[in-house]
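Summary for the steering committee. The consortium agreed at its last meeting that each partner would contribute one worked example illustrating the joint modelling workflow. Our contribution is presented below. We chose a case with several input lines so that the handling of multiple components could be demonstrated. No manual editing was applied between input and output; the record is shown as generated.
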Amino acid sequence: MRSPQLLETMTNDARRTADAADRAAQSERFAGLAERHIDSAYRLAGFLLSDAAEAEDALQEALVRAWRSWPALREASSFDAWLDRIVVNVCRDRLAVRKRVRFVDLNDDAVEAPDPFRAALARDSVGRGLDRLSPEQRAVVVLRFWRDMPLGDIAAHLEIPLGTVKSRLHYGLRVLAEEIDR
Amino acid sequence: MNQRPDSPKTRTTEEDAAGRLKALLSSARVPRAPDSLRSLLRGISEGGDEGVPPALRGLGPASTLRRRIGLREPARLVAVLALAVSMSAIALSIRNGEKPGLSATATLAPTTAPSTAGSAIQPSGSIVPWIDARPSPVSSATPALIPSGTATCAPSELTATAYWQGATGSMAGGIGVTNTNQRACVLNGSPRLVQLRSAATTLAPVSYRAAPQAGPGSSTGTAGPVLLRPGGQAGAFLLWENWCSAMIPGVTALLVTLPDGGSPIVATPTPPMTTIGSTPRCDVPTAGSILTAYAFAAVAPAQPMYEPQTATVSLSVPPTTTPGATLIFFVALTNRGTNPASLAPCPTYSEDLIVNGAAMKPPAEQRFLLNCIAIGEALAPGASVTLEMRYAVPAAIPSGSVELRWGMDPGGPFDTSSAIQHAPLTVTRP
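What follows is the complete predicted structure of the assembly.
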């Protein structure tokens, strides 16, 4: 059955503007949800990158990505995990670039720099060993031992299989144990 | 890989490493997020252009929209209405056989030889030339005069229809009413009440809010008395937000009470919304669900209908530019959707330069129309087009690394969350 002319007209006008209208309405909600989680997300980035300034950049980039992808998020209740996932992805990309460009050894003079994350991790060889993990291993290890997240939650958080979480944790800890013994 | 010949007695186990790491991380004294990130969020929350932080300036569609129409205060609704009026005017011009904004200024060849610094790698294949085409100024439609003595519309004189669609987390829609009587009548204002029904149940958790303004679906953009001649039609825009209750099979009917009261009219969504999940996103679990209806407004004649299509934007930008130069670059725009992206009315795009995190705007208007004459009436699914672009680099721009932002504007045939791209370049002094 053909739709009435009225309905077609309204559909056309409203569809072209509803998207913009709704996004304007969502900006406040996005900011509110992000504000609740911003400290945790920042510290996650800091422990992943061992660098406060880079963590700030990474979280800013993550927030930009999140804001642009915000319409795709269906359940606001999963916002924290969703933002964490974006943070991890941004940090992983930054770590990959860092490995290609430079190598930061926490045993060198940089330890003396007043970076809070670097300094916190440099207190123990196991913390310095985080730099020897792959970005993927490091994300799992940090979520497990800083956030105290169960393995199943990590799998859901990062959207990876539970077996992958276990594997990354196992091999990550092996590397850290070796680092302690160096 | 060499294995360390450690003795079992001294070898650290993985459990030991886990314990030491946990102790280290839990005792770490690390700072909270810096103020810069908090102010970034405040900027989003406040929505005004002054408050939008540099990193997000120009990226969020809402802030982009407000900036483009020159609003400094949130004025969300006014911004939306302005866009609606703009789009309606463009569409009306198209229906009248005009090409808005193209006829006056469009040319298929550059009018002046731009000065550039650096050069983009020119893509192979045909390139659609840039044109200096801008949207025409918008003029509001004139509401019909109301003859004195015209009675207000009674529920018995009207029939109602409705529709819903998902809109990035909310449900947007409209109510349409038709005068089935033999005499003209007047509707003035927004519905006194709109209730949503799912099967035989009225959705009680939904709070109703009557907005006095005309909604985005209005052809005039202004609220006021609407004359409904016999067979005449009017519409009211709806926005339903924040559904945190149990999933329902969908809204099957809307009970619409007219501005002057009386028995509600039943409007059945077309097509039927019977799919579970046809509800707004739950954004704030502690807040209620809100349904907003805007004022009835005259309905414009029918227009072609399209769904915003996902797009890919790829930029080819020179590595350097200079202050005052015309930056020439190339944009490859691909329709990743499953439907043709209609270019009638011709969609607009915008350009921004992000310098030290702040958006730079040249003195001139930055909103342009695509070269739709050269591209054609539509971009087919999977089809790509390479467009030449220009950007007038402000003379006062400082040297250093900057970022060029190019994106399709909201309200057009492309999904603006996918049709925006950035590219780095360096400003050098000649």
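Chain A has a mean pLDDT of 78. Helices of chain A lie at 5-49, 52-69, 79-101, 116-121, 125-128, 135-145, 151-158, 162-181.
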